[in-house]
Amino acid sequence: MTVAALTPVDIGHARYAALADPGTAFWALVDREQVAATLAGGPLLDAYREKAADFARELRALRFDLKPSAVYVNPTERCNLDCSYCYLPGTMRRDGGHMPEGRLLAALDKLRGYFATVMPAGRRPRIIFHGAEPLMNRDAVFASIDAFGDDFVFGLQTNGTLLDRSAIEFLTARGVSIGLSLDGPEAAITDLTRHTWSGRSVHARVLAAMDALRGYDAWSVIATCTTENLAHLPRMVELFHAHEVPTCMLNTVRCTLPGARGVKPADPDMARAFLAALDRSHALYQETGRKLVVANFANILIAILAPTARRLMCDISPCGGGRAFFALAADGGLYPCSEFIGLPRFRAGSLFESDVEAALDSEGFRLVTGRDVDTFAPCRDCAIRHFCGAPCPAEAHEMNGGMNHTGAFCGFYKEQVRYAFRLIADGIAGDYLWVGWDKGTETVFDHALR
Amino acid sequence: MQKRKPRQHRQTAAAPKTPAPTIALRKSCNPDGVGLSHYVLMDRKKAK
User: Fold this and answer.
1) How far is A350 from A341, CA to CA, in rounded Å?
2) Which positions in chain B touch A172 (Cβ < 8 Å)?
């Protein structure tokens, strides 16, 4: 039997407080003056108790019963950039090798066979070429996309510097989802963290790629938030909006490797700058009628409104690493997520010498898939833990001392959730979400009492 | 290249526009998220 247990959460709103049940990810916003009365009983609690068991089952299925449906494939170890915070070791990026074309084709063939055993009929698995810089092995990547276009949905995350006209024509003609990276509204800011091995700027080349992609449906830009660009996030949003970027991510720097920790913002600073950027994105939407969706925040909103409709699988516990997706390194190694490719302990053998099922059951994968915020402090006592998920396990393990620790930005996530609830309270949450974000969803609870 | 027209219309908000003393909303679907902080797949509809 599920016991409905609602915990008050101060969301910093003049009129509303939140009540949340972490066991089900259920929430309600109630008049601040009515919190005690609501908790004492009444129509809301009665309606929730009828649904609580269903919600608990749904959350449990999302957290523990998923099968992989995507692979992040690193077709090369090499990168033409030396970004200060990269989660891949510098020696690998500078001196590493490519996965030969024949081997990449063989890898996708084997993955196709695996997915045929786990994917529901009518759905295609996804292959995302990731980095290092995948376009350094462009011929092999493009040959794979052409060879397996009927079998996978493809994506490509690139630093954008090698995304020339012919590459864009190839990728957009095949509907490949493209992600770029840019860290500043101007070169002087971007150059502080993203540059070539010799220190040359790439800002203008990424802007040129953004211009070339203008009007394409399926592209996005990631800005990694560090101490170096934090003050400029609203201007980043203005730049992205002016270039008609459909979706961006303003991600906290991942602190898995020590090099990133030197540019890690403090939580309050990160929250202040991030929320200012969200405010700016909303002002631009009101001025122009055109949205720039900040995907990592949109995902927090969706985690609250429709837990199973999440697009990103970092902000949930266990995270998606090793269960919703896994990563294939250029040497054939299997890892729970790209974030772990620099950490040998998490390597689960080679795709060419073993099989995916064995990797999923490996010690390295189970370390990640077994990380459960219900089981360790302070998360187990946090009412919003299943809107956040305490990302990222790689950071928790490498920076904070183990899987049973928070990630790098606990306070920042709390502020995001509070902000998301305020938007819902004000009836403007939809302004921050993709058009049609809830297509294919069913409303299973809708309670607005006067 | 497949071009799209810039969307100029506003979306219906996820929550009621008129504030009420109590708001609670939940939607449900079959989960298929695979994005992460290093990548968000933007052709969700084509993956079906």
Assistant:
1) 13
2) 1-2
